[in-house]
Amino acid sequence: MRNWPIITLMLVAALFMGCNQADLSEDFQANDQLRMEIKGYVTFSYDPLNCQVGFNRQNCDFRVHSDNMSDFFSITLEEMPANTGQTIDGTATWTTGDDLHTKKTSFDVVKIQGSKIWLWSPDSRIAAVVQALY
Fold it and tell me: Which of 3, 29, 72, 102 has its CA 20 to 30 A from that of 95?
């Protein structure tokens, strides 16, 4: 089995090539929990016992935060999502521990179901499920 290291390396490379941005977006659609993911890892998710949801239609701002507002994420878009397939410029802001992060990026509207909207930025690999409150 002198070829074992080469075979292992080829298998690992095949796994990485199989994980593209489209796969992340498709997997992301299966869950309707309000949350933000960065590169496939959940950075914040809504817990109805400890969190609140905010929405400002005029500013196209979607927020999910802990009751004491120590942890949160916010997505602000240039326009309100209306259809799947739309691409909308926006800003994502989120906390990680003691840090505050902000990223300007374009979001694809992946899915709209009721008041929930699935957003995906292939460039930044930021995904979020947000909710418009009416």
Answer: 29
Tokens 């927020």 locate to 63
Q: Which of 54, 134, 58, 39 lies closest to 96 in space, CA to CA?
A: 39
pTM of the model: 0.81
- Phi and psi (nearest 5°) for 58? -60, -40
Per the CB < 8 A criterion, the answer to whether 38 and 125 are in contact is yes
